[in-house]
Specification:
It is a single chain. With 413 residues, the chain is an alpha+beta fold. It has helices at 3-8, 10-20, 30-45, 54-62, 67-76, 83-96, 160-164, 167-173, 184-195, 208-211, 214-222, 271-276, 344-351, 355-367, 378-401, and strands spanning 103-112, 122-126, 131-145, 148-156, 203-206, 227-230, 236-238, 244-245, 260-261, 269-270, 284-291, 294-309, 312-323, 331-336. The strands form two sheets. Strands 1, 2, 3, 4, 5, 6, 7, 10, 11, 12, 13 and 14 form a twelve-stranded mixed sheet that branches. Helix 3 packs across helix 15, helix 4 crosses helix 5 and helix 6 packs parallel to helix 15.
């Protein structure tokens, strides 16, 4: 936003900030901290020539070099809790954007970093560079509804050997004692368990990195979440539920200690093999979304599928298969626990509702300085992410005030 844009939106900004900034205070620095928070939010929202570090924000907003140090302290050291404003953000999004047709979306994003001091930094896959790189990775949860989309919450990923088990590095970066190693799917499950009951939605969706984890899918099923997400082509299962042999005498008189698929039952097939065997009549050409380049269409097929879990038949789900209609060939596989009477078109559209989180990452990095922070510790990282998510919420509110028009930003799906 330009300074003129922000001035025009000032009454709306003040109202929005008044809802959140009181949650960042304590009895000692009430007014000072509220003003620091509002100034930081303004700095995140204003257009910047370069970066949106604490120093750049202080100079842009205050125009006074003496404010740089205090802004850095507010971000990296000040002991305000992130949970209250994030909880209020969830309530706000439910009130403003919430819908029974809404979608919770989980995905990760990497931020390249130099050196080895920034909390969680390690050589790992970084989506921003598309390769193994020195970076921080966090798992994010976004919400998408008919009224817009925004980020809701995040969890920083701590690599197990480099960080979670290194007491000295944890202490230096201020990682709380109760934070232990969690895989990315475990962090995603934690986010959904925490946020899901607090916001209206009808779907959870995710990419293959989460869909390949059976415990993640089991957690969603246990929480009563309806999901659809991509799975790898190696995912296996049966078209009909096989018989299971309970623990007892085996074929040679030896007792078995766990259930197993009974002898003579069909072997599980990969979803790739199942797709290859589908007849031509199983496919339907469907429009799954209207994009900036026109209607987006593909061929879809859906069949009931008993997924393999721990070498045994698991729940019966929908296997949705998508293949391209054009000369750029691709094929994707999805699993969904939607009801048996769920329409193929609804499954296809829900499976393609991951793009809003990619748009949130793009907007966060290009407009709001999501990746511009220069803090190293746990506290500073989460303070910055909290304020970026609040700033993103305000942009959604501003767009709704202007009628939801946003023609300058392309559809990134």
């Amino acid at each position: 936003m330009t300074p003129k844009d922000l001035r025009q939106a000032l009454p709306l900004f003040e109202e929005f900030a008044e809802r959140f900034t009181p949650l960042l205070v304590d009895d000692r620095r009430t007014e000072s901290r509220r003003e620091r928070a509002k100034a930081y939010l303004r700095g995140l929202l204003l257009d910047a020539e370069s970066t949106k570090t604490a120093e750049a924000i202080a100079l842009k907003v205050h125009g006074d070099p003496s404010q740089v140090r205090m802004t850095q302290v507010f971000l990296g050291q000040s002991a305000w809790a992130d949970e209250p404003p994030r909880e209020e953000l969830i309530r706000w999004v439910d009130q403003e954007l919430g819908s029974d047709a809404g979608t919770l979306i989980v995905d990760e994003s990497g931020i390249p970093k130099c050196g080895d001091k920034s909390v969680g930094v390690a050589r790992q896959y970084c989506g921003a560079t598309g390769k193994l790189d020195n970076c921080q990775v966090a798992v994010y949860l976004a919400y998408a509804g008919p009224g817009g989309h925004t980020l809701l919450d995040e969890r920083l990923y701590l690599p197990e050997d480099e960080w979670a088990k290194d007491a000295a590095r944890r202490d230096e970066a201020g990682v709380p004692e109760g934070v232990v190693f969690r895989t990315k799917p475990e962090l995603a499950s934690e986010l959904i368990r925490h946020v899901g009951p607090k916001i209206r939605h009808g779907w959870v969706t995710f990419d293959e990195g989460y869909g390949k984890d059976p415990e993640f899918l089991g957690d969603l099923e246990g929480a009563g979440e309806r999901y659809i997400g991509e799975v790898p082509k190696t995912c296996r299962g049966w078209l009909r539920r096989p018989e299971v042999q309970e623990p007892g005498a085996g074929r040679r008189g030896r007792r078995t200690s766990r259930p197993r698929v009974a002898p003579g039952q069909p072997e599980p097939q990969t979803v790739e093999a199942i797709a290859a065997a589908l007849p031509a009549g199983a496919w339907k050409r469907l429009q799954f979304r209207e994009g900036t380049k026109g209607a987006q269409v593909a061929h879809f097929a859906a069949i009931r599928f008993v997924v393999e879990r721990d070498d045994l038949p698991g729940p019966e789900l929908w296997l949705v298969i998508e293949r391209s209609c054009d000369q750029a060939p691709y094929i994707k596989y999805y699993l969904s626990n939607a009801r048996r009477d769920c329409l193929l078109r609804e499954l296809a559209q829900a499976g393609h509702n991951r793009w809003p989180i990619e748009d949130c990452f793009l907007r966060g990095k290009q407009e709001l300085g999501l990746d511009d922070y220069e803090v190293r510790g746990w506290r500073g990282f989460h303070h910055h992410m909290t304020l970026v998510m609040l700033a993103m919420g305000f942009l959604v509110l501003q767009e709704r005030r202007l009628g939801g028009k946003n023609r300058d930003r392309p559809d990134v799906a």
